[in-house]
Amino acid sequence: TTSLGYSVRYPKDFTLNTAYVNTTLGPGKNIKGIQMVIPVMMATGTNLSTDSGISVEQLPGVTECSATLFLDSVVSSSTMSDNGVDYSVAKGGGAGAGNLYNETVYALPNSSPCTAVRYFVHTTQLGNYPKGTVKAYDQTSLNGAFDGIRESLLIAR
User: Fold this and answer.
1) Nearest to 138 by CA among 150, 127, 123, 152
2) Alpha carbon distance 68, 136 (integer Å)
3) Contact between 48 and 143 (Cβ < 8 Å)
4) pLDDT score of 3
5) 110, CA 20 to 30 Å: which among 19, 45, 66, 88?
């Protein structure tokens, strides 16, 4: 999506949502971007919900780009370098009625507009299902897919 100033590659079985808006921060504080939603088959028979996905989001007019700006409640924040790219990283999440929401945001500190990649993982409690009917999702596979998408992000200079 070069009209947004960046491009990203994602697996063909993911669904692209170009009308994506993150409303985490509350009314009037929408974060626009694009989202790649996991394939239904990745969630089938597991405790992973089909609304899980990865998004590229931008906050214009920010002087210091940080991952914490993209979350309403930050559980932890740090920095990391991956393949020569520096990231500001923040983790957040919530829970309710047997649902768990885990978010990890990887922001590019020197980007303008402030650009970040959000991993959104929605799962349900395994204990809420009859024994043997649902298995734990493959966290390694999901994170690998998300990492590959994040690593493909190219920002136009």
Assistant:
1) 123
2) 29
3) no
4) 73
5) 19
Condensed to tens digits (0 to 9), the pLDDT of residues 2-42 reads: 477 899 999 999 999 999 999 989 899 999 999 999 999 99
User: Are the CB atoms for 58 and 4 separated by under 8 Å?
Assistant: yes
Tokens encoding 2: 């070069």
Whether residue 149 contacts residue 6, with contact meaning beta carbons closer than 8 Å, is answered with: no
- Which residues are 10's β-sheet partners? none
CA distances from 128 to 41, 71, 96 (A): 21, 28, 13
| Segment (H or E) for 121 | strand 114-124
Tokens of 77: 């924040």
Residues 73-102 as b or e (16 or more Cβ within 10 Å = b): ebeebeeeeeeeeebbbbbbbeeeeeeebb
Show the tokens assigned to 32: 């626009």
What value does the CA radius of gyration of the chain take, rounded to a whole number of Å?
16
How many Å separate Cα 33 from the centre of its chain?
11
Structure tokens at 58: 């931008």
The residues, ordered by sequence, that sit 6+ positions from 96 with a Cβ below 8 Å of its Cβ are: none
